[in-house]
Amino acid sequence: MSIVTLDGEIIHYEVLGRGRPLFFLHGWVGSWRYWIPTMQAASITYRAYAIDMWGFGDTAKRAERYTLEQQVKLLDSFMEALGIAKIAIVGHGLGAVVGLNFVVKNPQLVDRALLTGFPLGNSAVSARLRSAPLPELVDWLLGKTPGTDAARAEANKTDPQAVRVSLDDMDALNLLDQTMRMTTPCLFVHGQNDPAVEAPPVELLNTLPDNTHEVIFDATGHFPMLDDANKFNRLLADFLSLPSGVSPRDLQLKEEWKRRVR
Description:
By secondary structure, the protein is α/β, with parallel strands linked by helices. It has helices at residues 36-42, 68-82, 94-105, 128-131, 134-142, 149-155, 160-171, 175-181, 202-205, 224-227, 229-241, and strands at residues 2-6, 9-16, 20-25, 46-51, 87-92, 110-116, 186-191, 212-217.
């Protein structure tokens, strides 16, 4: 167990491998732990960090830290504390929203980002995510997919207020506008059967900037990195192998990663 102290509060993280730094940011259910299989795959060529954000896992629970602004500041302070100059980001759900906000605010600090379950429009987020009790959210989002035990085991460490505050903050943001303003190469991944975040329509995808790309996993839900780990890890490896600054639309050269057309 690794920790760093920021503003007198404990931040828990885990790290694997050597190489350029790669940050994994968890979603509204679970913690750093469900990233382990993806971290192990990425750690062959990257130094993979998975961080428990404020209110989750073994990081401090302080309500005033739960805003999106504070979660973004956490990444900035974490990088400064560990002497990290530039990163790649893999974010999921809440972690995808935090990751995109960090990229927009600090484009010079992020080489590329893969964002899974990111709501490309505010209406894409299910109201149930806000209203359901935490145990119900866990069952709803995780289902019975093999490999979800790690996310289930850590879910009870979540402060439900951290979930609610993040969703309230999202209401004040125009997530699509933020996406359109992003200059960093970004790959969006959605599970077609995600009950929490609706996959965007093709008409919307066609309006995204040239430095972005969208891949939809047809047979997965909210956790594509668990539902289809091998495919997710191959996609991540292909994305990370692109030269710095190159648009992920080059992934269209592979039939498997072409955007699905309805």
